[in-house]
Amino acid sequence: MYKKIVGYNRYIISFVGILLMIILAGAFGNHEIILPEMAALIAGTLIYEEKPWLYKPFHLFILPTITAIAGFLINMLPVVLVVKLIAIIFVMILVLLVFKSRLGPSLATGLLPIITNAHSPAFIVSIIIATLVLYLTIKSLKLDKLASEENAPAASLRISLLYIGIVVLWLFICYELNVENLCAAPPVLVVLFEMIHKPQYPQKMYFKQVAMLTIVASLSVLSLFVFENFIIVAIVNFFIATIVLNIFKLKMPPAYALCILPLVLPHNTVQYLPVSIFAMSVVLYGIIYLLKYKATKNLATA
């Protein structure tokens, strides 16, 4: 009973934290204050207690801040979108390797200012404040005591290079098809980074993740067009993500980022988000599934 009460409290704290971000964005009249990946970080640390994230809570502050600043500066460069995306992918992976971290959501904070074309300094200020508050919250609740060094493996150079290769190939394909505006949904790339480091990727998990992300994206976009008010949409979408995750019996913090993402995308592209999520997840996760399946099959026949 105690664990259930604590669990509900964590959901409430996470919900309030996400909602506060939306309210502040409305109060200041600046949607760049809305940080979808903060929803994933909050859910991952407070709801799911992701031990790899909790072991070094300072990384929750410093890594998203570094990648967000890098993405913000790269977005200022006078080059085409696909070059910006490739540049930030390389920078973010380098940051993770230097810090010996596998904090996937820090990839999303680097991508966000590019896919949303952020130009306001409020974006940087909000990411610094939000991640600092999260870090202090984890320290005050002593959640970092739940994890140990063995829970926080460093990013692998070989696997990171494979990740870069897959993502860059995908970006070039989208560029050639002239759909690069829809080719870099941060939640999908975060899950890809996490799955590529897993020793196995079962077929059942592949289908569940594709279905879950597509459903969350579709319902989240639908609620935006139905309710229009950002606060109401944020409330509805939080429950959408929670319910869908429980139906699929998945613990995927990026789903909470995905349900907030429609609020920050350009209005002329947001309706295509479900198609983008479906295509990205089918192709990118499919590549990982095939690679893992082949490796497992070769090991079994060795």
Automatic annotation (TrEMBL):
It comes from the Bacteria. The chain crosses the membrane at residues 12-34, 54-74, 81-99, 119-138, 159-178, 205-225, 230-250, 270-291. Coiled coil: none annotated. Keywords: Membrane, Transmembrane, Transmembrane helix. This is HPP family protein.
